[in-house]
Amino acid sequence: LGLALYAGSLCAASRAAFLYHDYCVIGAGPSGLQVAYFLQQASRDYVVFERSHAPGSFFALYPRHRKLISINKQYTGKSNSEFNLRHDWNSLLSHDGRLLFRRYSRDFFPKADVMVRYLEDFASLLKLRVQYNTAIVHVTLERDEQAWNGHYFILTDQDRQNYKCSSLLVATGTWVPNVVNFPGSEYVEGYETVSINPEDFSGQAVLILGRGNSAFETAENILGVTNFIHMVSRSRVRLSWATHYVGDLRAINNGLLDTYQLKSLDGLLEGDLEDLAIVKDKKGKLHITLRFYLENRNTSTGIDSITLPQDELDNFATRAPYDRVIRCLGWKFDFSIYNRSLRMMPGKENKKKYPQIKPSYESRGTRGLFVLGTASHSVDFRKSAGGFIHGFRYTTRAVHRLLENRHHGVPWPSTVYPITQLTNSIIKRVNEASGLYQMFSVLADIILLRENATSFEYLEEYPVGVLAELEMQTGRKAPNGLFVVIMEYGRNFSGADKDVFYYNRAVGEAQHAWQSNFLHPVIYYYKHLPTEREMRLRPPEWSLPRPDAVHHIVEDFLTDWTAPNAHILPLRRFLENCLSTDLRNFFAESCFLFAFTRQKLPPFCRQGYVRMQGLVGSEGLRRHAVEAGLLEDYALTDSSGDRAPDTHKESQDPLLGDHVMPVRPLQHLVNAKDE
């Protein structure tokens, strides 16, 4: 008995040592707050750990020159809130209309301090459960077959307090500065600490390492006071308007390109930074040389004994000495706090600054560990907007929906419509949906067809990378085929070396829609849900495997896909061909005639007219239809009772024309045109 009591007390003490939550979120930046909002709306047990005293600590320091490059468009000419989010790159998703970023700033490119205030209000007004001043310093696993994922996550903070969680959501972003070590790198100043006062650079020659927005932001700040600025990186400059990737160089920061190309002393160079070396002379000037010149040499003997490139090549590009060298190489994910048991591994090649994750945003090494926000950008790096607020607010919502289905049996939200609403549903979404628009090629709407294609189930913004797992991930079934609605750019339109302003760059004819270059809707049709093998073997640049049929809605200068002939009619014909049915709308007179003359009624008549549904007719509506040519004025007869001339001898509809019955007396009722 004594041993049993002792063992029980040990178990109680062990439980007391761990504070348990179903969900633990590390980081109270934008993605951490966004997932906290969804968890709170679902009444889940969660906590957010934030090392700072307030949310959004990254924005308290960065960008250093305090101007964001995420647009804040005040006016769009539309009142539709979902459409307006397409041009609001800063707001998080919530039900509270006060928490739209345009209520905090009218600047097109807002100040970073406003973002800090916005995130503070988002956390406080929504009463999110954020535990501040809590730095998680170690994360490991505890195996337990009773746990959701076969293990618990054990988190330890700076005060050695332990927390136990069933699911771990990492929203720390990428905040560790990228550093390149080479001889003389101790003379380099970091973007995170360099002065932002332009006067400190007056009359100086400056070399900037890097070629991203932080590098050009730094150059823009001192462009007017320096002798000259040189910028070096291993890759050529990539302009966001050419690549259509918002993480590449934005126009707001590209003043140095003007001064370079217009020969005003500034310039850009390409070279591997690891091959460089910096030597400091007696006057404090910094000379650029190459690493191999310093091999087997004693640099302490002074610069005079060191061979510089200009000693052999007298027009060496960087032969002029510099007063300062600034490192602006971006950031990477902090892997240091994760125990080996979690197998959090960096990505490969240009994705090595991000952890390896699946298209579902779950870690490849550990089940139940999801990466959110900027750190999850490996899924769509250099392709879409998943590394930025206007993108990851939607991917975060997708992750929450996956978790709701996996752990709580809540299927992915969906709406069931009659098949007659298929065209309208697609047109509405492609013209309004912000998630499809911002996360192009990554998130898609899924339309699951019901038996005999009499109705369909509409799922919004599902990650297409896990399309093969749709039934397991959403709790929805797809036995009868599906449509996938996604937004795409033209295949060969985006790239650092592309001229996106060439003549005839846009397509205007519906028959050439497949050649559209700018962002436009694409609808894929699959008779069966693609398999994992088909997803794995698809070409690298393809979002989806080869479909049974595909339709491009032609690009539109106004991104308004509502033109009856150019947009809606070709889409409807495509859907009709896939489903072998007629998706037109008809007046009651046409349905009445079809009931007597055809073996099979169109879906609109079956689901509307036959069930006594539809608009109630009136003399005014009938007169309008006659004047518009949509109905015959069969009420007009001569005094002898003869009917009006019959101008519609045969049905104009090839889908219905196979089952015509020769009932001539009623033929004058035919409505040859669809509504």
UniProtKB/TrEMBL annotation:
<protein>
    <recommendedName>
        <fullName>FAD-dependent oxidoreductase domain-containing protein 2</fullName>
    </recommendedName>
</protein>
<comment type="similarity">
    <text>Belongs to the FOXRED2 family.</text>
</comment>
<feature type="region of interest" description="Disordered">
    <location>
        <begin position="637"/>
        <end position="658"/>
    </location>
</feature>
<dbReference type="GO" id="GO:0005788">
    <property type="term" value="C:endoplasmic reticulum lumen"/>
</dbReference>
<comment type="subunit">
    <text>Interacts with SEL1L. May interact with OS9 and DNAJC10. Interacts with TXNDC16.</text>
</comment>
<dbReference type="GO" id="GO:0004497">
    <property type="term" value="F:monooxygenase activity"/>
</dbReference>
<keyword id="KW-0256">Endoplasmic reticulum</keyword>
<dbReference type="InterPro" id="IPR050982">
    <property type="entry name" value="Auxin_biosynth/cation_transpt"/>
</dbReference>
<dbReference type="InterPro" id="IPR036188">
    <property type="entry name" value="FAD/NAD-bd_sf"/>
</dbReference>
<keyword id="KW-0732">Signal</keyword>
<feature type="compositionally biased region" description="Basic and acidic residues">
    <location>
        <begin position="640"/>
        <end position="652"/>
    </location>
</feature>
<keyword id="KW-0285">Flavoprotein</keyword>
<keyword id="KW-0274">FAD</keyword>
<dbReference type="GO" id="GO:0036503">
    <property type="term" value="P:ERAD pathway"/>
</dbReference>
<comment type="function">
    <text>Probable flavoprotein which may function in endoplasmic reticulum associated degradation (ERAD). May bind non-native proteins in the endoplasmic reticulum and target them to the ubiquitination machinery for subsequent degradation.</text>
</comment>
<dbReference type="GO" id="GO:0050660">
    <property type="term" value="F:flavin adenine dinucleotide binding"/>
</dbReference>
<dbReference type="Pfam" id="PF13738">
    <property type="entry name" value="Pyr_redox_3"/>
</dbReference>
<keyword id="KW-0560">Oxidoreductase</keyword>
<keyword id="KW-0325">Glycoprotein</keyword>
